[in-house]
Amino acid sequence: MLRLSILLLLAALVCVIQAGIFDSMYCGRHNCYEIMGVERTATKKEINKRYRKLAKELHPDHNKAEDAHEQFEMLVAAYETLRNEVSRNNYDYLLDNPDIYMEHFYRFFSHSTPKVDVAPVLIISLIVLSIIHYLHKHSAYNRAIDYAVNVPHIRSQAKQLAESEGLLEKKFFKGMTKEEQRLQEKKILRDIVESKLDIQGGYQKPEWTDILAFQLLMLPFNLGKMAWFHVRRFYKYTIRREEFDDIEKDYRTRQVVGLSQTQWDAVSEEKKASLYKKELWYEANKEAYLEERKEMERIAKATSNKYKQQKRMAKKEKVPENWND
Questions:
Q1: I need a surface site. Which of 91, 128, 157, 260 has the fewest CB within 10 A?
Q2: For residues 295 and 42, what is the distance between their CA atoms, to the nearest angstrom?
Q3: Shortest CA distance to 91 belongs to which of 42, 21, 40?
Q4: pTM to 2 decimals?
Q5: What gap in Å lies between CA 204 and CA 140, rounded to an integer?
Q6: Phi, psi of 38 (to 5 degrees)
Q7: Residue 186 contacts by C-beta under 8 Å, 6 or more apart in sequence?
Q8: Using one digit for the tens of pLDDT, what is the confidence trace for 205-263?
Q9: 263, 267, 256: which is closest to 291 by C-alpha?
Q10: For helices 2-24 and 101-109, what crossing angle results, to 10°?
């Protein structure tokens, strides 16, 4: 469903962009020959003569119509299209073959300077990307809930809670087939898990503030906030050598364990408390912790079945030391 939504949004975006580019090509949705008031067989000399005559009539200094500027700009666009032999041939090809969009785009932009107003295209692109970004985050949240429902102890707790609230009584399943009952029970358990489980980190339920457009809007503020945070840290703890406050301790601990802020938010309070006890904001404790973790990773690797298998294979394939005797 998510893939279908993304494909539909991308298709809509392509159509909008194509429409915007098509309107900026040659005379847009108007006919250049009709604007100039000449036939398609008109010579270059006739087109030049006709342009000089219309330019005097339609110039905003002489033309008092409300859309005088638009009329004159359209005349200039028509003249620029028809005065050049290459652009005129491309335009004639477009009139004879109006449905070959991509070929017309190539012909036009390979010989012309684009006049596309990028602002609407950027805004539409940002809106579509924001919608896709939101749908992706919502899909990740739903996957996290579905995974949690299938975890045995979470499912068991949810079922006990549902039974205590009377949500699984037989009267609610009366008249349903076994498959319908199974699906209904799954929905009830899912709703309970979703309401009780506090998912943090990259799989948390998306809010409107998480959409791409809002994040870009807040980017200057967030960059300024981050810069101030590090300037403040440098002044307090490097220049003045003050004692670390709770914010600094939290930041340094997160840096030592190598987690982003989103990942750190998903860590349980018990795990955080155990890390705080190690006082990793001090350099000596930090080095000891990293050395301990490195040793634990080495032991885990040495005792893993995959590592043992690789070691056995390497031993079998090892070339004897006296191979060149």
A1: 260
A2: 86
A3: 40
A4: 0.46
A5: 8
A6: -130, 165
A7: 149
A8: 778 788 888 888 888 998 999 999 899 999 998 999 899 999 999 999 999 988 887 77
A9: 256
A10: 50
| CA 105 distance to own-chain centroid | 27
Query: How far apart, in whole angstroms, are the C-alpha atoms of residue 44 and residue 42?
Result: 7
**What are the C-alpha distances in Å from 65 to residues 33, 70, 199, 222, 311?**
22, 10, 63, 49, 87
Res. 318 pLDDT band, cuts 50 70 90: very low
Name the DSSP class of 236: I
DSSP for 271-285 reads: HHHHHHHTTTTSHHH
The CB density around residue 56, as the number of other CB atoms within 10 Å, is: 11
3-class DSSP state for residue 175? coil
Cβ-based neighbour number of residue 297 at 10 Å: 10
> Among 11, 35, 214, 27, which residue's Cα sits nearest to residue 130?
214
Residue 264 CA from chain centroid, whole number: 22
Report the chain's terminal Cα–Cα distance, integer Å.
Answer: 67
Phi/psi for 201 (5° steps) reads 80, -150
